[in-house]
Amino acid sequence: MREIGVGLLGLGVVGSEVAHVLLHRATRLSEQVGAAVTLRRALVRDVSKERSHPLPPEMLTTNPDDVLAADDIDIVVELLGGEQPALDLIRRAVSNGKHVVTANKEIIAKAGYRLLSLAAQHGVDLRYEASVGSGIPIISPLQQDLAANEISAIRAIVNGTTNYILSKMAHEGLDYATALRQAQDLGYAEPDPTNDTEGIDAAYKLAILASLAFHTPVRPSAIYRQGISALNPKDFTYANELGYAVKLLAIAKRQGEALEARVHPALTPLDSQLANVDGVYNAVQIEGDLVGTLVFFGRGAGGQPTSSTVVADVLTIARNIANGGLIRPRIELNRRIPVMPMLDVETSYYFRLAVADQPGVLAQISRVLGEHRISISTVIQKELDPAAQTAIIVIMTHPASERSVQAAVTEFTHLPLVQEVSALIRVER
Amino acid sequence: MREIGVGLLGLGVVGSEVAHVLLHRATRLSEQVGAAVTLRRALVRDVSKERSHPLPPEMLTTNPDDVLAADDIDIVVELLGGEQPALDLIRRAVSNGKHVVTANKEIIAKAGYRLLSLAAQHGVDLRYEASVGSGIPIISPLQQDLAANEISAIRAIVNGTTNYILSKMAHEGLDYATALRQAQDLGYAEPDPTNDTEGIDAAYKLAILASLAFHTPVRPSAIYRQGISALNPKDFTYANELGYAVKLLAIAKRQGEALEARVHPALTPLDSQLANVDGVYNAVQIEGDLVGTLVFFGRGAGGQPTSSTVVADVLTIARNIANGGLIRPRIELNRRIPVMPMLDVETSYYFRLAVADQPGVLAQISRVLGEHRISISTVIQKELDPAAQTAIIVIMTHPASERSVQAAVTEFTHLPLVQEVSALIRVER
């Protein structure tokens, strides 16, 4: 039986699980592949560090070339995370004729297209199923199973940290700071949570999905981003009354000759598949012209779910090597579809305003919206503090352009009866 | 550019859509494959029949050999449905060295293992993604993306007809006969609906999924089946009060050295992913030891969704041919895990009993359950008809074996105070 060697870059949470699976399921995995898939060694920073799944010491190295340039390694698995040195190491692996598997969304989002070209030049495969949705198969369905479709829209919950925080705010009425602290205590959020809470991670993942779905390179920097830190538990309550959940959605849609690409909190109908994705789960909803609506749901983070996908990518490459197939990865990003400016995007909106509890306030607000051609679908007025004569007005609008809405918001702040525009959240149906 | 020829067997609802996609998206599909994928001809019963997407007349033939034995055809797509002549035609195609794509669940469920062996002998590929879940990618995720996992359970809604009927019964309170008639009027149910309503179709699909998930051949005849025709809208109401929906589930689970494999109506918690799958949608939930819970959701029937998957299979084979890869399909059904007898299966149950509204009736029922070691989790007693002194008792049990439950039911029918065991539905959490 032919032996196919695997080398790891990184032995953190995911790397340890991948090593564990490759070592302890070797026989079964090899049967499935028709060749022995053998873990050779792993690059680590510190060979003496205690690990939950210890590897034989002779498998650990601090010299990258023991993995990248080793004759007995066919497949390099990059699990370091972050941009550098991971990107350089992947480049070197590919240049040395190694197939590469990575879970690194940042690198694939920023440099995937160039890396795939490099892999094609060197006749090797570069797979990255785990870069989006952890254990959920979504890259391979987009590349393979949906290939006959014109995709019109992707709506996705792809960040488990923010989804955990939003679920806590929705179901337990916690404020943002408390929910974040709980997530940090449980290890679901980093000490510096910016990457998750500001939608940076979600934008990387959306860039990857949108590039594949629309066959065009989508740069993460072209994606509009709004994080969740300004959300208030009140809005979860009002949204629920109106029949909506609040989720951080990553959205990409074909609009004529352009793409919408945006990450922001959104009201989504309670009976939608995405509204019911709670806690650290992720879900990706795809609309294709033939297939209609598909949803892929599963755990969006964690060592074991990610190892499931990483090892699957290793096995796919190993199967191709064993079958003697010439592996020529296809780069199908052969369209050039620009991302449209956020100000041109049209969506429905949810407003929450603090106003003076006086006659005529709704008339003033309606006039401003009307002048900006924003039409109202629902209004809820709540008396808040009779002594202070303050009320809350919640407004849902029909679709309107971001430009009009921003202009209306600016005008609201000049109305004497409007004390504050307390919340402005987009709606995604 | 190399040309890869495709021949169709059957030009019904799905066949017409597949032909339409192959003809009208030829350029784009060929770009993705790196070879021209060309529809050559289609076997039909009647060349003069009017069709929604007409093909050029020279592409129609009534002679199977024009497809099965044609030198210009590399891939044969079987979309006739039913066992014969489809099975013979697939065998002949494979024996002639043609790759085969089929959406035929009956054939794959009954003869898939033998057909895959035959394909391996002839060095050709046999793909059947559309045989389960129509447009939902599920075969390929099981074969590829979940390959590192030990699968412990599959729970699936894989029959759109019955799910449509059950959704109508649940949401509109229709009785079974009325809901069925509506489904028939809309073309969602056949004039003879037995194949769908008795779970035969779902059992074929479960056989296919379970074989792949557990790496063992699972014959459809070994799968326990109970249909939906005895369900009463009352039970949807009581189930809802108790926090459950009623769904026709296809369930396969690893239990030690055996498998549970069964298709039957089941109470499933309202907050589960499956409870919210309504109408003609399908969903497949898979539990793997690494990945945790995954759910795949989408349209379970229809020409366009099925064509999405069938064409994807064609493209995958075409890509392999174009890449010069030697295609050696792997048969991984290398375990032998028996399906356990239904009487040995343990689940929770929902009972509805019509009883005399007299003191002591609940004591009698509890005694019988206790004697059979069935423990009660919830009881609801409802006075039904004070004049007739009839009441309804709804009981939810903790897990108990089917054998005990059947014995208790037999004993109930001999209790003087029990008029009828009106419903007995399994619970799947």
List the helices and strands and how they pair.
2 copies of one chain form a homodimer.
Chain A: E1 3-9, H1 13-24, H2 26-33, E2 36-43, E3 60-61, H3 65-68, E4 75-78, H4 86-95, E5 99-102, H5 105-121, E6 126-127, H6 139-145, E7 151-157, H7 160-172, H8 176-185, H9 194-197, H10 200-214, E8 224-225, H11 233-241, E9 244-255, E10 258-269, E11 281-288, E12 292-299, H12 303-322, E13 346-356, H13 361-371, E14 376-385, E15 390-397, E16 400-401, H14 402-412, E17 418-427
Helix pairs in contact in A: 1-12, 4-5, 5-10, 7-8, 13-14
Give a structural overview.
2 copies of one chain form a homodimer. Chain A has 429 residues and is of the alpha/beta class. Chain A folds into 3 domains: 3-134 and 303-322, NAD(P)-binding Rossmann-like Domain (Rossmann fold), CATH 3.40.50; 140-299, Dihydrodipicolinate Reductase, domain 2, CATH 3.30.360.10; 344-427, 2-Layer Sandwich (Alpha-Beta Plaits). The first copy, chain A, has helices spanning 13-24, 26-33, 65-68, 86-95, 105-121, 139-145, 160-172, 176-185, 194-197, 200-214, 233-241, 303-322, 361-371, 402-412, and strands at 3-9, 36-43, 60-61, 75-78, 99-102, 126-127, 151-157, 224-225, 244-255, 258-269, 281-288, 292-299, 346-356, 376-385, 390-397, 400-401, 418-427. In chain A, the strands form 2 sheets. In chain A, strands 7, 8, 9, 10, 11, 12, 13, 14, 15, 16 and 17 form an 11-stranded mixed beta sheet that branches. The first copy, chain A, has a 6-stranded parallel beta sheet with strand order 3-2-1-4-5-6, with helices on both faces. In chain A, strand 4 (75-78), helix 4 and strand 5 form a beta-alpha-beta unit. The longest helix of chain A has 20 residues, at 303-322. The mean pLDDT of chain A is 94. Chains A and B meet through helix 2, helix 6, strand 12 and helix 12 of A and helix 2, helix 6, strand 12 and helix 12 of B. Strand 12 (292-299) of chain A pairs antiparallel with strand 12 (292-299) of chain B.
